[in-house]
Amino acid sequence: MLPGMTELARNSTPVELKVQAGDQTLAYKRWGREDQPLVLALHGWRDNAATFDRLAPLLPDWQILALDFAGHGFSSPRHRDGSYSIWTYLDDVMALLDQLKISKCHLLGHSMGGAVGTLFAALFPERINRLVLLDILGPLSVDPEDAVAQMRRALLQKQEWDPSQQSYYPTEYSAIDARARVGLEFATARLLASRSLSHDEGGYYWHTDRRLARANALSLTEGHVLAFLRRIACPTLFVQGADQAYWEPLAKVFDSRLASIANLQHVQLKGHHHQHLEGEVEAVAGLVKTFLAD
Q: What pTM was computed for the model?
């Protein structure tokens, strides 16, 4: 057996765990040993902790905790009047760290999870050692002039949408295929389905909270985002996918965001938005290992 393979095999099988924070149940997966340096991994919008199923086993020197945000995966949804604005996910991060009595850790976030990570690192620099951003450079922002239309849309959607209604698929395959058609390989969509696909007498459905598709009543402006990025004090690694279609909407603010994080390493890899899960997984793992071990 090659050196390190025993540890890699041990890291390949995660443990499923949950914590209770008030009326919120938060599920997470743990790879590695409790005596190893800790990395909290945060997934993207409408994904779940399984997004790290291929990356985490390639990081055998760290204990990886991959959280299901509220309303995602095996975590419970927010209460009836709850919100899924970007800052509400900070409650999930705080709850998990506090329940597990974790005072400080590394943060690794993909997409929305990375956006949450930038906010948390800015707000609580004393709790973050290093920050890894996978194809994200801060939260999405909204022009202040668009705030009125956005709030109107959010209020109307809240009146019109019944979150208990489900979109059913006749077979498991058709449900997974529908997710795969939104930019993923079928095998990857199946991984995510392992935590988010349910079945009842109506058929198969994604049990991710349907309220996630609603507009938020308010969003951060670009000025807000830059203020948060300037407050990030820890060393930060930004691993960007080369697919420029994803980054085109942020073209006007990209350089100013890069310049706002003081201690930033920026690396671009081939691949698309889920490069940590498809195609460039080993390359991403190599960058993360070097960065965290530095």
A: 0.93
* The predicted structure's pLDDT at residue 5: 35
3-class secondary structure, 268:
strand
How far apart (Å, rounded) are the C-alpha atoms in residues 198 and 184? 20
Active-site entry in 111, 196, 219, 260: 111
- Angle CA(285)–CA(137)–CA(45) in degrees, nearest 5? 80
Percent of residues, the chain, with pLDDT higher than 90 = 82
Q: How confident is the model at residue 8 (pLDDT cuts 50, 70, 90)?
A: very low
Task: Dig out the tokens for 114 from the structure.
Answer: 């990375």
| Residue boundaries of the structural domains of the chain | 5-143+219-293
Structure tokens at 194: 């392992």
Positions of E strands within 11-86: 15-21, 24-31, 38-42, 63-67
Determine contact, residues 204/233, Cβ cutoff 8 Å. Answer: no
Distance, CA of 294 to CA of 292 (rounded, Å): 6
- Give the C-alpha separation, 251 to 37, whole Å: 36
Determine the Cα–Cα distance for residues 169 and 73; give it in Å rounded to an integer: 18
Please, which pLDDT band fits residue 12 given cuts at 50, 70 and 90? Answer: low
Report helix, strand or coil for 106.
Answer: strand
103 given a catalytic annotation:
no
- 186, 180 contact by CB (below 8 A): yes
Considering only CA atoms, which of 206, 201, 148 is closest in space to residue 175? 206
- Please write the tens of the pLDDT for every residue from 187-210: 999 999 999 999 999 999 999 999
The CATH architecture assigned to 5-143+219-293 reads 3-Layer(aba) Sandwich (3.40)
Q: What's the rounded mean pLDDT across residues 207-230?
A: 95
